[in-house]
UniProtKB/TrEMBL annotation:
<dbReference type="Pfam" id="PF25390">
    <property type="entry name" value="WD40_RLD"/>
</dbReference>
<feature type="repeat" description="RCC1">
    <location>
        <begin position="1"/>
        <end position="54"/>
    </location>
</feature>
<feature type="domain" description="RCC1-like">
    <location>
        <begin position="2"/>
        <end position="351"/>
    </location>
</feature>
<dbReference type="InterPro" id="IPR009091">
    <property type="entry name" value="RCC1/BLIP-II"/>
</dbReference>
<protein>
    <submittedName>
        <fullName>Alpha tubulin suppressor</fullName>
    </submittedName>
</protein>
<feature type="repeat" description="RCC1">
    <location>
        <begin position="267"/>
        <end position="304"/>
    </location>
</feature>
<dbReference type="InterPro" id="IPR000408">
    <property type="entry name" value="Reg_chr_condens"/>
</dbReference>
<feature type="repeat" description="RCC1">
    <location>
        <begin position="175"/>
        <end position="224"/>
    </location>
</feature>
<dbReference type="InterPro" id="IPR058923">
    <property type="entry name" value="RCC1-like_dom"/>
</dbReference>
<dbReference type="InterPro" id="IPR051553">
    <property type="entry name" value="Ran_GTPase-activating"/>
</dbReference>
<keyword id="KW-0344">Guanine-nucleotide releasing factor</keyword>
<keyword id="KW-0677">Repeat</keyword>
<feature type="repeat" description="RCC1">
    <location>
        <begin position="120"/>
        <end position="174"/>
    </location>
</feature>
Amino acid sequence: MLLALGSNGSGQLGIGHGDDVSAPQTCSLPPPFEAAAHVRIAAGGNHTLVLGLSKPSSQDVPSSVLYASGDNSDGRCGGSPRRLNTFRHADLRTDNGTPLYDIKLCSATWEASIFVTPEDEVFSCGTGLKGELGLGEEVTQATAPQLISNFPPKDTRIVDLASSMGHTVAVLSNGDVYGWGQGRKGQLGHPAGICWEPRKIDGIGFKAVRAVCGRDFVYVVGSPDEGTHTTLGSDKWSVRSTAPDNIAGWKSVGASWHGVYVLLKSGKLIGWGRNDHGQMPPANTPLIEDFAAGSEHVLAKTKTGKLLAWGWGEHGNCGAPTAAGGDVADRWNEIEVEGEVVEVGAGCATSWIHVAES
């Protein structure tokens, strides 16, 4: 079961209407979502992709199934352009009608969607005025998924994919990182500016294994044993200059629009960057099992199974109560849900909770 709360003006929560909610609501997801052992949430400005990865023992179901809800006026959710208030199977077909049956990775910019197939073909659709589609110079719209040609390079595979408002990065099996979209702050390497198609980001200095995107930066990490990491792009809110020297023992990483978060294997969650809404982990935060960073908030599952939220919660994405400006600062809200929390997700003022079926 998938629950959601937060911003919902375009139906991006997939709960059947277009009102914001501050308590978890059950998303409408058609079968075979029940077979999903894990989910990947990719949330754009007004649309959401939910990638369900099935249990290894599942029979007669695809290894993955992709759902979409929200603004689909430009085809960013696949199928006929229209607003979606509930999740439906993303009918991904290329412009010649060929269906994309299986997806292994997905991400979303503000108005576009990016998909990677098990064969490591990369497709994009929607709107991208600053190269977000990666389809070549001046290609700003694709109402059906279009193949990003000549990518990835021969004999490499895509092992991680991440996007923020205006740019996307892909980590390859050889440790290289490629990016496309808005790169005016140097987040996609140099020369700074728009990258209309995937370009290798030089100068990282180690083999990358994961990457996440802030609004104007890219955060790249190497092996957990080595703890190497680097930030490219804007240093606004000191996302580069206040980073620790090493993050050895990291378990997971995330980024908000203006902050970086690292979950260590010990369960300690650390962060640096913007904190004017209380986005950084509050003092005495308990040990964390899983977390997700949204635009300016965090949703976290503790090692004891509790669900916490803090940061900018104006749209209800941090639950209740909030301060007058919508913040949950220097503390957290405990979000009540029935059932065992499997994993969490977060997007643009949205929060997502995957709960095990009882």
